[in-house]
Design a protein that fits this description.
7-stranded mixed β-sheet; 5-stranded parallel β-sheet; 517 residues; 3 domains; alpha+beta
């Protein structure tokens, strides 16, 4: 059996029959099997938007061996008599726990929030009533913040090929669409993710893992640079290794770690608001038409440099999605974006943020703990402005003109919007950067200035970063890993999950090396 990879271009509404005809004609064969290796949309010319597809073809009529080399994560099971405690069931924490359990460790995974079923009910109640639910919100709970997002599976890191293969195959086994293995910009959608995290939970427990929901990590018992116990709302848990994946919203967990001598430093991050448009505006700007057969909804990624050389960019774009109240705590007001797999809503949204350092937000040099306090004050101020979880907003044009919006606007945000001077509510440096960026974005994407800005987007990344050594261990500790977005080293589902997997594999490596002596 021979094998060959070819690149082909196909219309957006192609069929498998069309693929087979193109392959047959290009390779001059009739009997063959094929698989899609990579697929991306080429929309550089609006008159000729098409899919660019790399296909692997196997046939007796081809020369060469039918062999596709895959970069596989080597997880070998053997009984390893060590107990692991993992905190946080987001991508970093869960995939670390899954790999360690598959490797033969005894793993207990704790999560401060609820399981995904209860979490979804509590979120629905929150959006219907406006009454915050600490156990069921967009920040905490099974699967982390990513469970209620667009579910993007992209990563800018080039060092995660083994981890990426494992993550994608795990998702597919848990019910994800097979296309995530080859799409250039794969996504799951929140509807798929809610099913997937539940199925992954069942797999983890089938392997013998213990998962405790509604269990908050409150302290650590430490002796001579070694964590002995995790103190939780459900009792103390002893272990040989401890992995903490707090996410970027768990302020009290950050502060607890700092009080226990875990070293942090401040770092650049980004804040701004969420930009929302009618999806038809984005489709027309990107495609030259309101809809494109075979493609769900148009996306965009915009970036520029403000006059102070600070980056301004869009982040976490949700085509056909909605803006959601993503606050982690009562009396704070934060927004984020979410999409379903079909991306068929009438609105598009994306974070529109400016990069800065916590010193710039505070107007002085700050410690890591002070950086959290300054960000928390900003999040509280947006709640105080509206007196509720209604989102302060203005149109993009009014933000540039610095005047209150008086016109009625449509939005997907479920808890209402109130006109607000966002240019005054954000720091002067952020406002200046965003205004320059929005002018540039409106030139790059026709109709962009017809959108609105709403709420505070403060969770694109963490303002603090834990100090880790070359092995990934927390500096000064023998058995503590801080992983994922909350560590300051990852952002998004893929890079966070990969960070957790690398920590897990380091534990396996150290254990096996010690046992071989």
């Amino acid at each position: 059996m021979g094998y060959k990879e070819i690149d082909i271009n196909l219309p957006t509404d192609y069929s498998d029959v069309m693929i087979r005809k193109v392959i047959s004609k290009k390779l001059r064969i009739k009997d063959f099997s094929f698989q899609i290796i990579n697929k991306s949309l080429d929309a550089r010319k609006k008159s000729n938007i098409h899919w660019r597809i790399k296909i692997g073809v196997a046939s007796k009529g081809l020369r060469g061996e039918s062999q596709v080399h895959r970069n596989i994560l080597n997880i070998k099971y053997k009984k390893r008599n060590k107990r692991i405690v993992v905190t946080g069931s987001g991508p970093a924490g869960f995939f670390a726990a899954l790999v360690l359990q598959k490797s033969g460790f005894d793993v207990t995974l704790i999560e401060r929030g609820a399981d995904v079923e209860k979490r979804a009910r509590e979120i629905r109640d929150f959006e219907n009533s406006g009454v915050f639910k600490p156990l069921g919100n967009y920040a905490f709970g099974e699967g982390g913040a990513g469970t209620f997002s667009d579910g993007k599976l992209t990563s800018r890191s080039k060092r995660v090929s083994k981890e990426k293969e494992f993550i994608l195959s795990s998702y597919i086994s848990a019910g994800a669409p097979a296309e995530i293995a080859y799409m250039a910009h794969p996504h799951l959608g929140t509807d798929n993710l809610r099913k997937i995290v539940k199925n992954l939970r069942h797999e983890f427990k089938r392997l013998g893992g213990i998962l405790l929901f509604e269990t908050l990590l409150t302290d650590l018992n430490i002796k001579n640079g070694r964590v002995i116990e995790a103190v939780t709302s459900g009792g103390n848990l002893s272990g040989d290794y401890f992995l903490i994946a707090p996410g970027h919203s768990a302020y009290e967990t950050y502060r607890m770690l700092m009080s226990n001598g875990v070293p942090f430093r401040t770092k650049n991050f980004a804040i701004g608001s969420r930009a929302e448009h009618k999806q038809v505006i984005i489709n027309t700007a990107q495609w030259g038409t309101t809809e494109l057969p075979g493609v769900k909804a148009a996306e965009y990624r915009l970036t520029t440099k403000a006059g102070n050389n600070q980056p301004v960019y869009t982040f976490c774009m949700c085509p056909g999605g909605k803006v959601v109240p993503a606050t982690a705590y009562q009396n704070t007001n934060i927004v984020n974006g979410m999409s379903y797999y079909r991306r068929n809503g009438q609105f598009a949204n994306a974070a529109c943020v400016a990069g800065l350092h916590p010193d710039g937000l505070a107007g002085r040099m700050v410690t890591p703990e002070e950086a959290l306090t300054e960000l928390e004050k900003l999040e509280n101020s947006f709640y105080e402005y509206s007196g509720s979880y209604a989102a302060p907003f203005c149109t993009i044009r009014d933000f540039l003109a610095e005047k209150l919006t008086v016109e009625q606007v449509d939005t997907s945000y479920p808890l209402g919007i109130v006109p607000a001077p966002l240019w005054e509510m954000l720091s002067p440096a952020v406002t200046d950067s965003l205004q320059k960026g929005l002018i540039d974005f409106s030139k790059k994407l026709k109709g962009y200035d017809q959108g609105i800005l709403l709420g505070l987007e403060s969770k694109t990344s963490s303002p603090v970063q834990v100090i880790r050594n070359e092995s990934g261990l927390t500096e000064g500790f023998d058995n503590l890993f801080i992983i994922g977005e909350g560590s300051g080293y990852a952002g998004g589902i893929m890079s966070s999950a990969a960070d957790g997997i690398r920590a897990a594999m380091k534990i396996v490596e150290v254990y096996d090396k010690f046992q071989s002596k």
